[in-house]
Specification:
Layout (H helix, E strand, L loop, with lengths): L1 E3 L5 H12 L4 E5 L7 E2 L15 E5 L6 H18 L3 E7 L9 H12 L4 E7 L3 H6 L2 E3 L2 E4 L5 E3 L3 H13 L7 E5 L3 E3 H8 L3 E3 L2 H8 L9 H13 L9 H6 L6 H15 L4
Parallel strand pairs: 1-2, 1-4, 2-3, 4-5, 5-6, 6-10, 8-12
Antiparallel strand pairs: 7-8, 9-11
Helix pairs in contact: 1-5, 2-3, 6-10, 7-8
């Protein structure tokens, strides 16, 4: 049986949907289980019961400081070893993202998993095209971007879910593999052109000033947002790979269309002045 953790999250829920369409026996792991699901709370290791699970899709539980995230993942991997799980698939971060503020927890988890007695596959997911689009701010004059001319190889979330499901359904074919799951690179200017609006570049200082006014952000989030902008702006996120298309069995989804739709949706959701 396959378990997918973080079942209430978007990536995990899409992965579960894809596995269900394939007719694969699957169970969802979540902090708030409904009927037929299992309680899995990474912050309470006593709840980590993977008995009867042959393949665990460990969706990164990264919404916290690095030490907390690594502790969550370590507990899950140790529980998987204890309970006889054969194969763990970890949803990591693209190799091009090592300059991002949230990369360390992913690389630490990779090391823990690779040093375990488990069979493993690492899915180094690109940043979501949906996220990139949502980070562009709408104004009456056009799209405001801190990315300058920097390109980023993103991926559509549904494609990443399909890739995870394909690997989980046939894990033996992917033992010891590290996949770079990104599509073709795009820029903020590409998104603006797609939407027929102007692109307005801002400096990193201007971005930081804006982030500092976002009272809704958790303490660790400003560094994450700033690092995305700086890393893309300085050309570290444009590398691509054929792994995603290979796993999904077709060309990757048009990420420019996905990013543009996300930018438009963010604009539509923005309160009127």
């Amino acid at each position: 049986m396959i378990m997918v953790t973080g079942a209430r999250g978007q990536l995990a829920s899409l992965t579960l949907d894809e596995l269900a369409r394939s007719g694969v026996e699957t169970v969802a792991g979540t902090r708030h289980p409904s009927k037929g699901e299992r309680l899995v709370d990474f912050d309470d290791p006593a709840t980590l019961d993977f008995s009867g699970i042959s393949t665990l899709v460990l969706v990164s539980a990264g919404y916290a400081e690095d030490d907390i995230v690594v502790a969550r993942h370590r507990a899950a991997i140790e529980a998987a070893e204890r309970d006889g799980v054969k194969h763990v698939i970890y949803t990591s971060l693209t190799g091009a993202g090592d300059h991002l503020a949230f990369a360390l927890a992913h690389r630490a988890t990779e090391k823990i998993l690779q040093a375990s007695a488990l069979e493993w596959t690492i899915l180094r997911n690109g940043l979501y095209a949906e996220l990139f689009g949502s980070l562009l701010t709408w104004t009456p004059a056009g799209l405001v971007s801190p990315f300058a001319n920097g390109a980023i190889a993103v991926a559509a979330r549904p494609d990443l879910a399909i890739a995870a499901a394909r690997v989980a359904a046939s894990p033996k074919s992917h033992v010891g593999r590290v996949y770079e799951l990104v599509a073709e690179p795009i820029t903020a200017a590409d998104v603006a052109e797609k939407l027929g609006v102007e692109i307005l570049d801002i400096s990193l200082s201007e971005l930081r000033a804006g982030i500092e006014t976002m009272e809704e952000l958790l303490p660790f989030q400003p560094a994450m947002l700033f690092s995305i902008a700086s890393t893309v702006r300085h050309g570290f996120m444009s590398g691509t790979s054929d792994d995603l298309a290979s796993l999904v069995g077709r060309p990757a989804t048009d990420v420019l269309t996905v990013a543009a739709a996300a930018a438009a949706a963010a604009a539509a959701a923005k309160p009127s002045a």
